[in-house]
């Protein structure tokens, strides 16, 4: 397994001290992975799972404050002005979290435990995304149509994704999966709604702090799965914060 995946864990008491004191000098990296989250299967094929409480409220607040403390949110179209002319636009700001932060490491270990036996080669660095009122991300997929090569004949793509909600709970800003089956009639309306589409498909997931969506991006032959195409609807009021957690898989071509 990639050495980057050997994340240590943190005792809850040490994490509490860290949150309060904002220092890592006295943090003993041991066990922090005791959070009891629950799951709801949204789709079996493609695999998509809703996760209740993947982060505690305290963890979500900490990671959001960590992102804000970087003072490094960059608007996507300032970084990539050529994307302003693309049909699918990402109108939002983002920054990356420091990999060495112990709470980041704790969360990555939890995410690693969640993916279990899925073949992978570690995570990309965690990215926090900020959507102001009116900002959005048009329909897109997380996998690369032309995945980058890291060595001759060796290519990496994004095998799976988590999107974890942080911070405020805005109105609007749902994450929509356009090709998944709609939610059943008895689904929790505080978490799910449906998309009025011509083909009857589509489900929208509402931003709730600490909850997350997980989905597989690649087929077993490492080609991208178009059925996990998704979008972020415009925020109507408030600010939406989310965290992209992207699982890599490398393979020979």
UniProtKB/TrEMBL annotation:
Gene Ontology MF term list: iron ion binding; L-ascorbic acid binding; procollagen-proline 4-dioxygenase activity
Keywords associated with the record: Dioxygenase, Iron, Metal-binding, Oxidoreductase
Limits of the Fe2OG dioxygenase domain: 122-252
Essential cofactor(s): L-ascorbate
Superkingdom assignment: Eukaryota
Keyword Magnesium belongs to the record: no
Annotated GO CC locations: endoplasmic reticulum
InterPro entries recorded: Oxoglu/Fe-dep_dioxygenase_dom, P4HA-like, Pro_4_hyd_alph, Pro_4_hyd_alph_FE2OG_OXY
Name this polypeptide is given: Putative prolyl 4-hydroxylase alpha subunit
Organism of provenance: Aspergillus bertholletiae
PANTHER family: PROLYL 4-HYDROXYLASE ALPHA SUBUNIT, PROLYL 4-HYDROXYLASE ALPHA SUBUNIT DOMAIN-CONTAINING PROTEIN
SMART domains per UniProt: P4Hc
Gene3D superfamilies named in the record: q2cbj1_9rhob like domain (2.60.120.620)
